[in-house]
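The records we work with from here on pair a chain with its fold. These numbers are not coordinates but entries in a learned vocabulary of local backbone shapes. To see the layout at work, look at the sequence and tokens printed below.

. . .
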Amino acid sequence: MLTTNLQRGLAMLDLLCRAQDGLPMFKMADPLGIPRSTAHRVLAELSEAGFVTQENEQAPYRLTLKLAQMGMSYLNVAGVTNVIQPVLHRLAAETKELARMSIVDGKRLVWVSKVQGSRTGLRYDANAEPGEEVVLFSSATGHAWLATLPENEALEIVMRQGFDPENRGPNAPKSATELLELLAKVRRKGYALVHETNEHGISAVAAPVWNKPANRVVGVVTIAGPTSRMDPEKIEAIAQQVLASADELSKVSFGLVR
């Protein structure tokens, strides 16, 4: 029997961990025997603390990545290696560029890990840290995810985040039509490739990571580096390495997938 709000909150979080599309309040309150008024208050507290989110009053509650981020922090402290890191380390070593991983969190794409493969000379060190949102409309990472969505949904997500080409790279798409043309190319190739769309002097290749049983994308693997050394031959090699890494991660179920 759940007698405290802490127990009730943890029980509802446990239900949400197994509901990839989220749950309305009553589908948590009723099975757990929690009065709906109490459940509403507990969910409001969980939302304020950043553990759950609700897009509007009629939408279901969904987990954010906060629990996953706490789990990652614990794994780092405990010295336990999760499945992402060895793949990124190998990819970074093979390409000698910056390898990064992002995870889908509802309508957002969030950076979770990075490994630098360039040891000497010119290199790219991204400013975004784990937990920060990926800029979607101008990045290879964003394009790799958006291309797997229906066009209307992709544009809705982009417009919600913001479309500001003036503050991105010189080749950033200037309109929704330009962005959709880029996404069509990604669908044909199976990976995203950009040159100076997100940042001056930087090129990137990215491929989606699929949860194959659920037939949905759960993350994106990306390689980024200085455009000056991204010649066509190197780009082709990197694209194949990124695709192989994305496929490897698609074959396993890891803790951040929900």
Notes: The two ends are 27 Å apart (CA to CA).
